[in-house]
Amino acid sequence: MCGIVGYIGTQQAAPLLLEGLTRLEHRGYDSAGLAVLGGSGLKVAKQAGRVRDLADGLPKRFGGKIGIGHTRWATHGPATDANAHPHTDEAGRVAVVHNGIIDNAAALRAELTAEGVVLASDTDTEVLAHLVARSSAKTLEQRIAEALGRIEGTYGIAVAHADFPDRLVVARNGSPLIIGVGDHEMHVASDLAALVRYTTTLAHLDDGEMATITAGGFTTYALGSIEGTGRPGLTATDRRAKEVDIDPEAYDAGEHDSFMHKELLEQPACAEAVLRGRLDERFGTGHLGGLNLDARELRAIRRVKILGCGSAYYVGQMGASLIEELARIPADAEAASEFRYRNPIVEPDTLYVAVSQSGETIDTLLAVQEIQRKGGRVIGLVNVVGSAIARQVDGGIYLHSGPEVAVASTKALTNMFLAFGMLAVQLGRVRDLSIADGKRLIAGLTRIPEQIDQVLATEADLALVAKRLAEAESLFFIGRVRGFPVAREGAQKFKEITYRHAEAYQTSELKHGPLALISPEVPTVAIVPDDELVERNVAALHEIAARGGPLVVITHESVDLGDLEGIVAGRIDVPRNERELDPILLTIPLQVLAYHAALELGHDIDKPRNLAKSVTVE
């Protein structure tokens, strides 16, 4: 969940590394640091705080044309100057930046301490610098291979060594690293955002792969062992860089005060992008060739299991409801972070769906690998082309949301829902979903971009409601059936960026305990679509109102709230679509409410405390 950058070439490294780190702060922002290699050796500057603090305190003489940088999301040890990366050996000749977790760090730290090494930090990463420094191998690559052979866990690393001033060495196992090829210069990063200003010729490392990077190019190796010795070894691989179609401007917030606001307003265009070319209006079905499944294989599916984390999990619940309702296949969603630890039964006639914006979410990636190890078929709903999950799965649906930088997901989540809508229709049409219903739903999907635009046009009104909600220390979000995952996602957004306690409940469960917490100080945001449960939902609102609980109702214009109309603190009407597709339109106001509540509270909306965009540690 940290950001890694590296540079080697003809320019001064420090300004380029600082620019890259600024673009990676969504991946971690507890502390930051640089190491550059120049004529006077290896120099390191690091401190707790944001990248701008590091830049302000950087020594004037910090020259060097080789360097590595890091912005941290703390795992081992608090956010302090000492715990910031890069980490070095005692002689200051090796510098390491690391994303991931070394599971056996405690044992390695104890071993190094017993050998007389004085450790300068609380981190797991520092052991790598000492292990590399203590190796007697002739090449830097072999020294790093030996060090990595001692550790257990995940890593994306970049290493600079004063004794090898012509190169950087990087390696990956479970945490992303990308090499960018420039003109007589090379770049390294853990995320495309740090590279697109300089190059769009990229190579993604695979797990278990190492690369040597010089100003003139790169060479890759597979980490393994030397036959007959058990010692770590390296085997050359044929990794090639490829040109990627990326718009660098997509990584700028432009005139917006935050990336989240920019991404909120991009949703209509992004929704059009994910639907484009994938709707078969003639036959009322989806056209998802990337699934790599023909009609016969789709018909053989007997169950669908969706795996995701956070918002991806909640939209997975929306997707499961869609699939079960339209295709009449048992479907459910589960937190990917728990899936593999319960020794799941993997069935050959189950379709597994991995959902991840970044395509690098480690919990989801490990769940995919567990399923495939047991012979299961997995498709992915992923936004980032070339990401680890995209390369691992058997097929899938790219989300075409464009870069999503804000930690709180908006446009990617919306496109995930639309991808599930298309998948559900396609699965339904090879079974019992009629062509009339198929055409009805395809027409509904086609209307969604314009309807999202209509919701966003009410932003000023939503901002007024958000200001009232921001005053509360605790909130309830409630919904039933299709509305419950919407409520869960709404609570998630509030927790993420307002830091208010927000809890989601099924409306029908309120009377089984949570109603005890209703009071004038605890507002309830209720999801009340005009569907078969509208009367039951309105009855529950009366129960809340009778106990003095303030109400904000997200609903449709056709819903009659009766004598509650004069009581609710806010009524938000969204356009109606087909009832199966309404959940995403009911979700959009919740995104806007959370954004404006966080704005009212003065929080850093794009970088909420304790969180990072791409969760690449368990």
Question: Care to describe what's here?
Answer:
This protein has 618 residues and is α/β, with parallel strands linked by helices. The protein has 3 domains: 3-247, Glutamine Phosphoribosylpyrophosphate, subunit 1, domain 1 (4-Layer Sandwich), CATH 3.60.20; 253-456, Rossmann fold, CATH 3.40.50; 458-605, Glucose-6-phosphate isomerase like protein, domain 1 (Rossmann fold). The chain has 18 helices and 27 strands. The strands form 5 sheets. It has an 8-stranded antiparallel β-sheet, covered by helices on one side. A hairpin with a 2-residue loop joins strand 12 and strand 13 (217-225). The longest helix has 22 residues, at 435-456. It is globular. The termini are close together.
Largest sheet: 8 strands, antiparallel
Shape: globular
Q: Based on helices, strands and strand pairing, what is the structural class?
A: alpha/beta
Tally of strands: 27
Summarize the structure.
It comes from Nocardioides daeguensis. With 618 residues, this protein is an alpha/beta fold.
What key attributes describe this structure?
27 strands, 18 helices, eight-stranded antiparallel sheet, globular, 618 residues, Glutamine Phosphoribosylpyrophosphate, subunit 1, domain 1, 34% helix, alpha/beta, seven-stranded antiparallel sheet, 3 domains, single chain, Rossmann fold
